[in-house]
DNA sequence: CCTGCAATTTGCGATAGCGCAAAACCGGCC
DNA sequence: GGCCGGTTTTGCGCTATCGCAAATTGCAGG
């Protein structure tokens, strides 16, 4: 198993307040695995045998209903943890994780968690913070779904993706991983058709440029305005 | 300040793995306060100076948009914590908490949290579990809002309330605190009008009995069936 | 017991967005 | 270079649900 360089991860919020040699000890329990694009890392309902830290790439976490519909819970960016089922007291994964790009992941066995947090209490505190932040985001998302129309929700979703995983271009920001209309629909609670229509509209106004699984925000500021427009703040 | 009896709270998940005398030490830092029905405990955006544990009564946590619309984040039942802004790294409350019934609450100063989790790491671990559970619930709610119609969402919401705060009756289950059509609308992402129409329909089928801020599920099992009905699983 | 307010009910027109279907498109692979 | 499959676009009718308005009801206080 390849050694993981502590310097690559030492600065992550997860390890705040953890001494360098402690970090070494923690990393010694992990292994590093590469997942090619479009491979599953774990499946919803499977036994939660591991938890993960994304080093490179991008991972989509999605939840599936009994009837087969899916929603995207979130996109995981490098440096973030995922699959923390055990930390929250679950024995099975509540969602499916799939690499949307070639990705590299650190993997710990679930069984290591209790020992790790006992030896390094900051881990629990730090994890609590990130889980808490995710809870906030979920509430925000619920608020948006309850009070905004589809166009605003899509605008917000794209702006968040741009902030989290945007690549600055000469002119605009590009979402730095493959993402389809369907994915955006599953993030915002709508259909790929409606997403397509709205992006087409934006494209003809020069707000975005997009294609197959690719989106560039050409006028981020104007999209912010769009995102904040209320149902009645009269359009042209 | 009145002494808090440890026996009242010792069994709570929050204090799992905490020794009795440690619990005593923890409680010594808290004070107990009574909030009459319909009084605010804290306001969204206010400085998070305290965190809370509900002893008696019921508390509604709600988020308000800039434009004044509200959603109900959750109802807090006795034994649950709320207002944990600091545990998740926020300095202001992300929602407003209001007592919907006469309520009694334990209050710790936010400043005590870092010290408490350092001395009693189980607190952090336990809190992580409950916050994680709430995250799951939020995802479930997002899934429902994305994939189900209003009637199913209302059914699920009422069933959850019944499970959390239901009072068993000779025949049926009563939601054990005052809750309006508007509240249910704000939990499910719809309007009070639509909630009213749907409850009226259920009432005429004998599924529920309801009135001013009061709901009794007369046929919980049939409501479960309703909740699981897919858009096309033909009605009668 | 009466009064007033807040909660609830209900009708009705308006519409955002869905669902289905078909066509166009785009890239990667052989 | 051409073919195939997944993605995207777009048209069109439909409907669940909203939004507004008005009537009704039930509780709480005086």
From TrEMBL, chains A, B:
Keywords: DNA-binding, Nitrogen fixation, Transcription, Transcription regulation. Pfam families: cNMP_binding, HTH_Crp_2. Residues 148-221 form the HTH crp-type domain. The keyword Transcription regulation applies. One of its GO terms (cellular component) is cytosol. It comes from the Bacteria. Residues 14-117 form the Cyclic nucleotide-binding domain. GO terms for molecular function: DNA binding; DNA-binding transcription factor activity. SMART domains: cNMP (SM00100), HTH_CRP (SM00419). This is CRP-like cAMP-binding protein.
